[in-house]
Structure formats: C-alpha cells, structure tokens
Amino acid sequence: MRRYTMYVCEKCKKESSDINEIKLCEAKHYGLNSIEELEEYDLLVKIFDDTSRILSCAQNPELLQRQDDALKELMNYEKEHNMKL
Length: 85
Ligand SMILES: [Zn+2]
Known about the structure:
The chain has helices at residues 19-29, 35-57, 61-80, and strands at residues 7-8, 15-16. The protein has 85 residues and is mainly alpha-helical. A two-stranded antiparallel sheet has the order 1-2. A hairpin with a 6-residue loop joins strand 1 and strand 2. It is elongated. The protein starts with 6 loop residues before the first strand and ends in a 5-residue tail after the last helix. 7% of the residues are buried. Residues 9, 11-12, 14, 25-26, 29 line the site of zinc ion. The site of zinc ion has 7 residues, from helix 1.
C-alpha cells in the first residue's frame, strides 16, 4: 500500500500534491505575489501571536511595547502589499 499527502488551499479548497502550488494559491488570495511573501507575512503573524501569548501571562510595559511594535509591523506589511484580508 502506498500513501501520499494532498495539500488543500484554505481559501478555495483547491487540492494538489505539490505544497508550493497550494502555498502560492493561498498567497494569491491575500494579494501576495510569491511564497516568500506569504512566509514573510506568516512570520509577522507568528511574532504578533507569540508576543500576545506572552502578554497574557505577564503584563509589563516592555512586552506591551514589543506587542505594539509587532502589530505595527504586521499592519504595515498588509498595507504595503495591499493584502486582501
Ligand atoms: Zn486557493
């Protein structure tokens, strides 16, 4: 028996065994032009989520500033790339 993996676009449910084809499909839905841009965006989302999670454990001014910076960077990226969210 053989087993294979299929990837599914979270936006349009397109399926492919090629992960890059699906990553690019998702990038296009957001108005991005490449997998690299999508990965860059995903990293900004992760940094914002991580700082938010830390904040929920320990409120302090330095962490609040880091979360604020992460949110600004994320919003700037969305704006610069005219992302459709
Ligand atoms: Zn799609």
